[in-house]
Amino acid sequence: MNPLAYLKREYGMAAGDIPVWIVGLAIAALWIMPFVWMVSTSLKYPGDVMTVDIEWLPSRVTFQNYVDIFTKYPVWRWTLNSIIVSVSATFLCVMSGALAGYALARMNFPGRHLLFFLYVASLMVPIEVYAVPMLLGIIKVGWANTYQALILPSVGNVFSVLIFRQFFLTFPRDLEDAARIDGAGHGLIFWKIALPLARAPLIAATIIIFVLNWNNFLWPLLAVFKEEMKTLPVGIAAFTPISGTATQLEGFALSMAGVTVLCVPSVLVFLILQRYFIQGISSGALRG
Amino acid sequence: MLNYRSEKPPVDWAAYAFVAVFTAPFLIFNIAPILFAAYLSFMKWGIFGPPKYVGFDNYRKALENDQILISFQNILLYGLTIVPGVLVLGLMAALYVNNRWPLSSVARVCFFSPYVVSATVIGLVWVWILDTQFGIANHYLGYLGIDNIPWLTSTSWSLYGVGITSIWWDMGLAFVLILAGLQDIPGDMYDAAEIDGATRWQRFRYVTLPMLRPVLSMVITLQLIATLRIFSQVYVMTSGGPASSSTSVLYEIYTVAIRNQKFGLGAAVSMMLFVVILLVTFLSRRLIREQSP
């Protein structure tokens, strides 16, 4: 069969579209080349990094850089810290956000509009504006270098409330009324009916907030100064080779191994659940 | 059954318990520090001794500090570089993927993927790519007859080196938001335009662009705010250098407050940044609204 006829029938493409289609795909491939280059460099011997010819596929492959970052630096500990912090902050944020989003959408109470306004207005003030004062408070109560200092400030992420509120606003009232007639209170309705049906926003909020927490940089950089309490992004950031020194280029093999490890969780979560991820990001919650 | 729906619904007292779980950390860790920052900006406070009220002294000092003034100038330059780059590339990528040609879902993943990795990854990878002597950027530009560009090591280029990196990082968000906006445009509008004999460009100019206006204005505002608070890339890639040429306001706040432990001055610069963000957001929304027909 004629491929041109096939493209026209299945995709409505004209002959003139073909070059545009191919160029577009080439640009998309080019767009992720930095990742390919990152992995490629991480598999090279430090001495092979500084070659005049560009080797996209390493002529000699080694995993020594990966062994080195895990044995010479506390990368295990940083990974563990990152997991503890991101998982607990995400869990707390999503659960409390689901409760608050449900209440804002389905329950009637004085102060409801004021609270919603406060949430939305707070989006105008980025965390960077108050990070240093918050740090002073955290130090004052003796929480420097602790998990709670890393976790608790990330719980109040308004995005979680907005995404659930948006969902519960469109939630069919009949289900709730039926349960109410059977004598169920809001607590029971939330746990038994609303939350199980909120699968899509639950997944979307969880993965988006997890990735945000995993990648969080400024706050963990400030809140922790002990090497063993650092999170992975802050720890790995120190692998920036100092420019102008002899270790600069050898350092790139090591630092690319570090950032490859750092990428893995967020890229995996994104690739596996990308439908929820993109829907969640582009949902009404952010557009409001 | 009474028609209870028409009456004022009863107050759900349980709602306060529902919102409390979120609102408690929100008030303690998001709202209280903002108020504390405002208070601190009028105080002189170092590492020793109690804070002392100094009125607008911190603000005056900030305005007399060249470093800080340069950093405000830089974030505006960053805005002028990154926002148009993200907007144009994001729009083009979204228009392309929206054709739903073969493999467009793969292209979608490619265009969005940089957005999901951390500043550390972005920063280190691009420090390597933009390396003056051995980076692949200069290697391939060499084929075009362009001499090695000192992307991150010269005062005239460093801001653009960080800017290009930020465009690559941030474009994914603009892309998916615009794509969602394109998918919301009813197909019959295009059908009608086609029947009227509109060319592809005319359909874009008179159907797509006006329909996308709200999304584009949101993208511009979001990206503008994100750019004014640029920090992590600067921290990882250049430490604001060389000679403050790529520094940002947040990087200066970090230097003043954390390195030099002038907390009052840092808080004052934070409040100034906040005002700039509010102003720029307000102006950009205003400008976009006025231009709409």
What does this structure look like?
The complex is a heterodimer of chains A (288) and B (293). Chain A folds into two domains: 3-66, no CATH class; 68-287, MetI-like (MetI-like fold, Orthogonal Bundle), CATH 1.10.3720.10. Chain A has 18 helices and no strands. Chain A has helices at residues 3-11, 17-31, 33-42, 46-49, 64-72, 75-106, 112-122, 127-140, 147-151, 158-169, 173-181, 186-197, 199-215, 218-223, 232-237, 247-272, 274-281, 284-287. The longest helix of chain A has 32 residues, at 75-106. The model of chain A has no long low-confidence stretch (mean pLDDT 86). Chain B starts with 13 loop residues before the first helix and ends with a helix. Chain B has 293 residues and is mainly alpha-helical. Chain B has helices at residues 14-40, 57-64, 66-98, 104-112, 119-129, 136-143, 158-183, 187-195, 200-228, 232-237, 249-259, 263-291; strands at 43-44, 52-53. The radius of gyration of chain B is 24 Å and the shape is globular. In chain B, helix 3 (66-98) packs across helix 11 (249-259) and helix 5 crosses helix 7. Chain B contains twelve helices and two strands. At the A-B interface, helix 2, helix 3, helix 6, helix 7 and helix 8 of A face helix 1, helix 4, helix 5, helix 7 and helix 9 of B.
Layout of helices and strands, plus pairs?
The complex is a heterodimer of chains A (288) and B (293).
Chain A: H1 3-11, H2 17-31, H3 33-42, H4 46-49, H5 64-72, H6 75-106, H7 112-122, H8 127-140, H9 147-151, H10 158-169, H11 173-181, H12 186-197, H13 199-215, H14 218-223, H15 232-237, H16 247-272, H17 274-281, H18 284-287
Helix pairs in contact in A: 3-16, 5-16, 6-10, 6-13, 10-13, 11-12, 13-16, 13-17
Chain B: H1 14-40, E1 43-44, E2 52-53, H2 57-64, H3 66-98, H4 104-112, H5 119-129, H6 136-143, H7 158-183, H8 187-195, H9 200-228, H10 232-237, H11 249-259, H12 263-291
Antiparallel strand pairs in B: 1-2
